[in-house]
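Retro notes (design track)

What went well: tokenization of the new backbones is finally stable.
What didn't: we kept losing track of which sequence belonged to which structure.
Fix going forward: every design gets posted as structure first, then sequence, in one message. First example under the new rule, 367 residues:
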């Protein structure tokens, strides 16, 4: 089997870097992004901070008042988390990544694995230039820096990435992998938290090297078969987990309650147009095309009903959602005497292809 070349990209001080991006004058100051609990003006916790703030001892999870105290006398700036904005930036970067990888596995808002084996023809030398190219491209197009770890599997790529931040690039070739892991503390391995590392210490295991040499059978006795074997293999730099594309969401939908029960189409469409705006935004952000559109309603007798239409071609535009929502409600109101309390709109049957023609052929579901 050909050696794999797996890359992990982890955006640097992500939420804080996003704030710097839209407000570059703060770049030289300590920047803290926090979740404010709202109880008092001060209460809440640090989500993350830039590296300048970290020098003063600010850490993720720390109470905000403590971060403020540590930064007293500096020109530190504080922000409230703005997930919508960070998600947008993350999506743009992930989109760029997808062009550079045979498969892309997004792990979180600021982390993704890229399988680049084919792209670099299995060469770790080429992987260096390739990583620099991706970094430069994202920096130019989006303005965000990130750290990269490259290795023969996901475990090595992850630990490599963590070993040099921010804006790091760490490459661990297959023949170097075991020596690279050997001296590291066991808690650098995914799955080794506080409890496990205490347990391992009791067995006399402190480093990954010690774990690698430890009797596998004994590990199985202590941690169970699945985990025991995982620890043994991981410590020996063995990991065959593929970089797996995450399945797309199966549907995107929104539901809302009408201000009053009604049988009036225009009144209903006011509400569904609002819902459609939201759905359209998400569909666009995720670059999806949908093939099915459904409506949902709860009538005054409290029964719920759906109606769907399947499009001849995948579509991605707002007008298609609105037009078909209208058509389905029109037909439903014609058939039913009940007034409607709640309405919903849903798109599904996603693909990532470009839509060609938008032709309709419709069929109706029974209740
Ligand atoms: P991390 O990747 O752990 O941290 P980071 O990106 O801020 O810094 P770096 O990678 O350079 O060390 O987390 C990613 C984002 O997740 C982070 O920007 C904010 C958020 N986060 C929290 O909200 N709370 C937390 O406790 C942590 C650790 C992260
Ligand atoms: Ca990060």
């Amino acid at each position: 089997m050909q050696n794999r070349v797996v890359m992990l990209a982890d955006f640097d001080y992500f939420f804080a870097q996003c704030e710097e991006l839209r407000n570059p004058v703060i770049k030289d100051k300590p920047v803290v992004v926090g979740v404010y609990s709202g109880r008092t003006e001060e209460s809440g916790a640090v989500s993350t901070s830039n590296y300048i703030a970290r020098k003063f001892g600010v850490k993720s999870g720390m109470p905000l008042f403590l971060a403020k105290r540590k930064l007293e006398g500096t020109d530190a700036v504080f922000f409230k988390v703005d997930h919508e904005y960070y998600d947008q930036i993350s999506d743009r970067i992930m989109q760029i990544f997808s062009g550079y990888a045979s498969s892309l596995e997004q792990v979180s808002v600021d982390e993704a694995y890229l399988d680049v084996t084919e792209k670099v023809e299995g060469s770790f030398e080429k992987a260096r230039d390739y990583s620099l190219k991706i970094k430069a491209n994202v920096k130019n197009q989006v303005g965000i820096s990130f750290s990269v770890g490259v290795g023969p599997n996901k475990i090595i790529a992850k630990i490599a990435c963590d070993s040099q931040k921010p804006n790091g690039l760490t490459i661990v070739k297959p023949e170097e992998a075991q020596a690279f892991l050997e001296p590291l503390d066991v808690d650098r391995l995914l799955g080794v938290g506080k409890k496990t590392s205490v347990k391992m210490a009791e067995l006399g295991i402190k480093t990954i090297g010690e774990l690698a040499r430890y009797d596998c059978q004994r590990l199985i006795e202590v941690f169970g078969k699945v985990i025991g074997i995982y620890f043994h293999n991981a410590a020996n730099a063995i990991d065959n987990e593929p970089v797996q594309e995450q399945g797309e969401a199966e549907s995107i939908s929104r539901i809302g309650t009408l201000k009053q029960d009604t049988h009036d189409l225009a009144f209903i469409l006011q509400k569904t147009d609002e819902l459609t705006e939201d759905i359209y935004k998400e569909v666009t952000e995720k670059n999806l095309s949908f093939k099915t559109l459904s409506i949902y309603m709860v009538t005054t007798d409290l029964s719920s009903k759906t109606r769907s239409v399947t499009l001849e071609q995948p579509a991605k535009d707002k007008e298609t959602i609105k037009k078909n929502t209208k058509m389905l409600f029109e037909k439903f109101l014609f058939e039913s005497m009940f007034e409607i309390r709640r309405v919903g709109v849903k798109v599904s049957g996603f693909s990532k292809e470009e839509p060609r023609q938008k032709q309709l052929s419709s069929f109706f579901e029974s209740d």
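Added context from the reviewer: The pocket of calcium ion (ligand 2) is lined by residues 10-11, 14, 110 (CB under 6 Å).
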